[in-house]
C-alpha cells in the first residue's frame, strides 16, 4: 500500500477507534440507566431497552442511504466529520436526560449521526486495492476491538462513580474525534469519481435495489441481515442477561466486554489476513459464522460466570467472517457506488436492528417472567446462534455458485 494511502487508513483507524471507545463506554451503563427509570424491574427494562434499540435502528434506516449517497456526491470527509460532531452533542443530551423520554430522543438522534462507520468503510474501499480490502477491513475491525477493550472497562469504572459520567467522557471523545478529523483527515474520493445525488438511490428502498443487481450480492445481503440480527442479541441482552443470571455488577460487565474487545482485536487485527490467505473467502465465512454460532451456544447454556467467559474467545472467531463478506461485496460494485453500497448495507443492518432489539428483549423477558412455562434465560442466544448457522449455509452456497458461474464463463 502506498504511503499516503497507508496514512489515510491510519486516520480512519483512529476515527473508528475513538467512535468505538465512546460507544463502548456507555454500553454497560445505558441498560442499567434505563432500568433505574423502570423502578429496577429487569423484565420491564428489557422491553423498554428493546424499544430504544428499535427507534435507533429506524432512524439509521432512513438516514444511512441518504448519507451514503451524499458521500458519493460530496466526498467522505464531510459526512464523517458531521456525524462525529453530532454524536458528541447527542452524548451531552443523554448525559443531561432527566427522564426516559429524553433518553429516547437521544437514541433517535444517535441513529442519524452514527453513519461515520459505514462511510469510513466506503473510505477504505476508495483507497485500497480490491484484493487487499479484506485484510484492511480486518485491521480496521481491530479498532472496534480496541475500543471495546478499554471502553466498557472505563465505562464500568466511571459508571460506578456516577451513571452519567461515561456519557460526558464519551461526548468529549466524539467531539475530539471530529476535531481530529477536521485537521488531519484527507478526502478519499476525487471530484472526477463522484456521482450525482439521486433521491432514488438515497431513499432506503432505492438503496436496497443496488443489492439486487447481482445474485451473489443479494445472497450476501441476506447473510449480512441474518448475522446482524444475531449480533443485536449481544447489545440487547448481554448486560441484562449477565446481571440477571450471574449477578454481575457494572464493573464485572465492563471487564467482560473488555475481554470481548481484546479477543476481537486479536482475531481481526492478526488472524483475518492469514485466515483469508489460507482458507479463501468462502471457508473464512463458514469458519467465522460457525464459530459465532458455537459461542452463542456456550453463552446460552453456561451454568455459571466462569464458563460463560470461555464462550467469549470462541464467539470472536465470528470476526473472520465480516471482513471476508464486506470485501467480496465491494468487488461486486463499481468505484462510484461504494458509498451507495455501504449505505445500502447500513440500511440492511438497520432493518436487522429494527427487528433484533425487540425480538431478543421480548424473548428474554418472556423466558424469565414469573409463570413462564420454561425458564430459559439463554433463549435469545439460542435464536442468535441459529441465525448464524443460516448465514453460514447461505454464504457457502452463494460463493460456490458464483465460482461455478465464473468457471463456466471462462470455458465459454
From TrEMBL:
It is found in: Membrane. SUPFAM superfamilies: MFS general substrate transporter. The chain crosses the membrane at residues 7-28, 48-67, 79-98, 104-124, 136-159, 165-185, 217-241, 253-276, 283-302, 308-330, 351-369, 381-402. GO terms for cellular component: membrane. Residues 8-403 form the Major facilitator superfamily (MFS) profile domain. Pfam families: MFS_1. Keywords: Membrane, Transmembrane, Transmembrane helix, Transport. Its main location: membrane. InterPro entries: MFS, MFS_dom, MFS_trans_sf, Sugar_transporter_CS, Tet-R_TetA/multi-R_MdtG-like. It comes from the Bacteria. The keyword Membrane applies. The keyword Transport applies. It is a multi-pass membrane protein. Resistance to tetracycline by an active tetracycline efflux. This is an energy-dependent process that decreases the accumulation of the antibiotic in whole cells. This protein functions as a metal-tetracycline/H(+) antiporter. This is DHA1 family tetracycline resistance protein-like MFS transporter. It comes from Rhodopseudomonas rhenobacensis.
Amino acid at each position: 500500500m502506498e504511503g499516503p494511502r497507508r496514512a489515510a487508513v491510519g486516520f480512519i483507524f483512529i476515527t473508528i477507534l475513538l467512535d468505538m471507545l465512546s460507544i463502548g463506554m456507555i454500553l454497560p451503563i445505558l441498560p442499567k440507566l434505563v432500568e433505574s427509570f423502570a423502578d429496577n424491574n429487569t423484565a420491564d427494562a428489557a422491553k423498554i431497552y428493546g424499544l430504544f434499540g428499535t427507534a435507533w435502528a429506524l432512524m439509521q434506516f432512513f438516514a444511512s442511504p441518504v448519507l451514503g449517497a451524499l458521500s458519493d456526491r460530496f466526498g467522505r470527509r464531510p459526512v464523517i466529520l458531521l456525524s462525529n460532531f453530532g454524536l458528541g452533542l447527542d452524548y451531552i443530551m443523554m448525559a443531561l436526560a432527566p427522564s426516559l423520554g429524553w433518553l429516547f430522543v437521544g437514541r433517535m438522534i444517535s441513529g442519524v449521526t452514527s453513519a461515520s462507520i459505514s462511510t469510513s468503510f466506503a473510505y477504505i474501499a476508495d483507497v485500497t486495492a480490491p484484493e487487499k480490502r479484506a485484510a484492511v477491513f480486518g485491521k480496521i475491525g481491530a479498532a472496534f476491538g480496541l475500543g471495546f477493550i478499554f471502553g466498557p472497562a472505563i465505562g464500568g469504572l466511571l459508571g460506578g462513580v456516577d451513571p452519567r459520567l461515561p456519557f460526558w467522557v464519551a461526548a468529549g471523545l466524539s467531539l475530539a474525534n471530529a476535531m481530529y478529523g477536521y485537521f488531519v483527515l484527507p478526502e478519499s474520493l476525487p471530484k472526477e469519481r463522484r456521482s450525482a445525488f439521486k433521491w432514488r438511490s438515497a431513499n432506503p428502498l432505492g438503496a436496497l435495489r443496488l443489492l439486487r443487481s447481482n445474485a451473489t450480492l443479494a445472497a450476501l445481503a441476506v447473510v449480512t441481515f441474518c448475522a446482524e440480527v444475531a449480533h443485536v442479541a449481544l447489545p440487547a441482552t448481554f448486560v441484562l442477561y449477565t446481571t440477571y443470571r450471574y449477578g454481575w455488577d457494572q464493573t464485572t460487565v465492563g471487564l467482560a466486554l473488555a475481554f470481548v474487545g481484546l479477543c476481537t482485536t486479536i482475531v481481526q487485527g492478526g488472524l483475518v489476513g492469514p485466515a483469508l490467505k489460507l482458507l479463501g473467502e468462502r471457508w473464512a465465512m463458514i469458519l467465522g459464522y460457525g464459530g459465532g454460532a458455537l459461542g452463542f451456544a456456550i453463552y446460552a447454556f453456561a451454568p455459571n460466570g466462569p464458563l460463560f467467559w470461555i464462550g467469549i474467545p470462541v464467539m470472536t472467531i465470528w470476526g473472520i467472517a465480516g471482513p471476508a463478506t464486506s470485501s467480496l461485496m465491494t468487488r461486486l460494485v463499481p468505484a462510484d457506488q461504494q458509498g451507495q453500497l455501504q449505505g445500502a448495507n447500513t440500511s440492511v443492518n438497520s432493518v436487522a436492528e429494527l427487528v433484533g432489539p425487540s425480538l431478543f428483549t421480548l424473548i428474554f423477558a418472556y423466558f424469565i417472567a414469573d409463570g413462564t412455562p420454561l425458564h430459559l434465560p439463554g433463549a435469545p442466544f439460542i435464536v442468535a446462534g441459529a441465525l448464524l448457522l443460516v448465514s453460514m449455509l447461505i454464504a457457502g452456497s452463494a460463493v460456490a455458485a458464483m465460482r461455478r458461474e465464473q468457471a463456466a464463463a471462462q470455458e465459454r
